[in-house]
């Protein structure tokens, strides 16, 4: 499975940590950026290309691809990602991880948006593993609802 990862300045440190964490577990990780810390960066400039890459894979049906995006709250990043056809991004910024399971099982989310300000490194690692390990249920009602998104 290929994992695309991107952040803004607020998520940069956590992105770098997660990149190494995932590589050590055998995932192929493609870092979309930023490649260095810049407190003046704009998240659409890195999240947009990640979302486009995930969208291209979703529409082509080629291989398993997921995205991990990070920002202060994760909200703006998810908004950018969800503007691309075929991208289904959900936000996790702490609390019950059941929401991560549901975004995968019910919505077949292919991008996880993390609110880096609200998560410890351990919380982020556990959230990412749960996201990657939880399969889509494939239930007819969920398949039908997802098909209604990209009309």
Automatic annotation (TrEMBL):
InterPro entries in UniProt: RpiB_LacA_LacB, RpiB_LacA_LacB_sf
Keyword field: Isomerase
Protein's UniProt keywords contain DNA damage: no
PANTHER family: DNA DAMAGE-REPAIR_TOLERATION PROTEIN DRT102 (PTHR30345:SF0), RIBOSE-5-PHOSPHATE ISOMERASE B (PTHR30345)
Protein name, UniProt field: Ribose-5-phosphate isomerase
Organism: Candidatus Nomurabacteria bacterium RIFCSPLOWO2_01_FULL_36_10b
Pfam families, A to Z: LacAB_rpiB
Annotated GO biological process: D-allose catabolic process; pentose-phosphate shunt, non-oxidative branch
Molecular function GO labels: ribose-5-phosphate isomerase activity
